[in-house]
Design brief:
Order of helices and strands: EEEEEEEEEHEEHE
Helix content: under 10%
Structural class: mainly beta
Radius of gyration: 17 Å
CATH superfamily: monomeric porin ompg
CATH architecture: Beta Barrel
Number of domains: 1
Number of helices: 2
Shape: globular
Number of strands: 12
Largest sheet: 12 strands, antiparallel, barrel
Strand order of the largest sheet: 1-2-3-4-5-6-7-8-9-10-11-12
Strand content: over 45%
Distance between the termini: 33 Å
CATH topology: Porin
Length: 254
């Protein structure tokens, strides 16, 4: 399985982020949405481990080491794990933001995916992202298209609530719906055959926590369980109708 993301480690999302196909990368790392009033540059770097199925819909799991990168500049430009973006419009005192985002989507080598002797290249996704934050409640959504014309697009919306927010750490829960287009399902799960794949909507529940050992060191952890829609769970080579992903990491805050 490919161990590296596309060259651009990009960011956004408040959750164990969305993305079809191969998992176990920084795309599966939760990102806290807990508000921070700091301005200027905020940079955190670290490393972690992601335990996840080798491919969404299979029983075999693996644990991969992953880099953790979070950058924020004046709450406009951000890099967060596997996404990069810019909040272009932020009306005052509304909690609403609208902007552009790009992220990587992993493919798989021959023998790593659900279809023997078929491989999918890593691709880049880009599109529009919106969010609304009101106290401890947040909603994030995005509509993304792929750099590969035949690999389709995806859209996702996530609602999360932070139960604990203190100087020592945070604890949040989330629910997410992710829709993959017909082309995306066909590209990843049906080897671009004439099977007539339908679009799929996966539903997820997750928990993320952070713990601050000090102002400089933060531990991050999370778990997400995803129910796979029928067009994916019924695809050739897919043996499971759900997947579970977990992450644990340590970051240094500059």
């Amino acid at each position: 399985m490919k161990k590296l993301l596309l060259a651009s480690l990009l960011v956004s999302g408040p959750t164990l982020a969305a993305g079809s196909g191969v998992v176990g990368s920084t795309a599966d790392i939760p990102a806290s949405h807990h508000a921070d009033d700091s301005s200027g540059w905020q940079v955190s770097l670290g490393a972690g481990a992601v335990n996840a199925p080798e491919f969404d819909g299979v029983d075999d799991t693996e644990t991969n080491a992953v880099p953790l990168i979070k950058v924020n500049y004046n709450h406009r430009f951000y890099i967060e794990f596997n996404k990069i973006g810019w909040w272009a419009w932020k009306p005052d005192d509304t909690g609403f933001s609208l902007g552009l985002v790009a992220q990587s989507r992993k493919g798989y080598d021959k023998g790593d995916g659900p279809i023997p002797n078929f491989e999918v290249d890593d691709t880049a996704l880009a599109g529009i992202r919106a969010r609304w934050i009101n106290g401890r409640f947040a909603i994030h959504g995005a509509v993304l298209g792929s750099s590969e014309s035949d690999s389709g697009g995806e859209a996702h919306i996530t609602a999360s609530y932070t139960f604990i927010a203190s100087p020592k750490g945070t604890l949040s829960a989330m629910v997410q719906a992710e829709t993959l287009s017909e082309d995306a399902v066909d590209y990843f799960y049906y080897a671009e055959t004439d099977a007539g794949a339908d679009s799929a909507t996966n539903l997820s529940l997750g928990v993320i926590g952070t713990y601050n050992f000090s102002k400089k060191w933060t531990m991050i952890g999370g778990v997400k369980v995803t129910s796979l829609d029928d067009p994916i769970s019924d695809a050739p080579g897919v043996t499971e109708d759900s997947s579970t992903k977990a992450v644990l990491g340590l970051m240094y805050n500059f």
